[in-house]
Design a protein that fits this description.
The chain is α+β, with helices and mostly antiparallel strands and 147 residues long. The protein has a single domain, classed as Immunoglobulin-like, CATH 2.60.40.420. It contains two helices and nine strands. The protein has a five-stranded mixed sheet with strand order 3-9-8-5-6, with no helix packed on it. Strand 5 and strand 6 form a beta hairpin. Helix 1 runs antiparallel to helix 2. The longest helix is centred in the C-terminal third of the chain and has 26 residues. Bound molecules: copper (II) ion. The site of copper (II) ion has 6 residues, from loops. Copper (II) ion binds next to loops.
Length: 147
């Protein structure tokens, strides 16, 4: 039984951990489609992790709408039937508003959404996993000594 446990720990050390570390070094990217329609965005809350490369594809479902992202100072505009996209690295954590930059009607000023850039969870998971496995190994050694 303990042998199986030891083998499992060794397995995790040799295969799972390096893959975690590797993925963390590589730039992760994701594409998010945002549908703009008088006078809202769908989705209107986007959550990403710090360090991720984010590509935003803006799709307009009625008239020309814009997308201006506070804090990052990025902008794009989409005509109906003509998508546009912007790509950036989410290097600042926090909550940033994005709003329509094309006057599209009476409630245009209320056309708003939020980009939430959270901490790098992958890195945190990696640290936790390392600690967990380290303590796990110590426990195995300790239990073995008691036999
Ligand atoms: Cu608009």
């Amino acid at each position: 039984m303990k042998k199986i446990f030891t083998i499992t720990v060794l397995f995790l050390f040799s295969f799972v951990l390096p893959s975690f570390a590797q993925e963390d070094n590589g730039e992760r990217s994701r594409t998010i489609e945002i549908k703009a329609k008088k006078f809202s965005y769908t989705p209107n809350i986007i959550e990403v992790n710090k360090g991720e490369r984010v590509k935003i594809r803006l799709i307009s479902e009625d008239v020309t709408h814009g997308f201006y992202l506070d804090g990052y100072g990025l902008e794009t505009k989409a005509n109906p039937g003509q998508d546009s996209s912007i790509s950036f690295v989410a290097d600042k954590t926090g909550r940033f508003a994005f709003r329509c930059s094309v006057t599209c009607g009476e409630f245009h000023p209320y056309m708003i959404g939020y980009l939430v850039v959270g901490p790098n969870l992958r890195f945190r998971n990696y640290v936790f996993l390392t600690l967990f496995l380290g303590l796990g190994s110590l426990a195995v050694i300790f239990l073995k000594k008691r036999d």
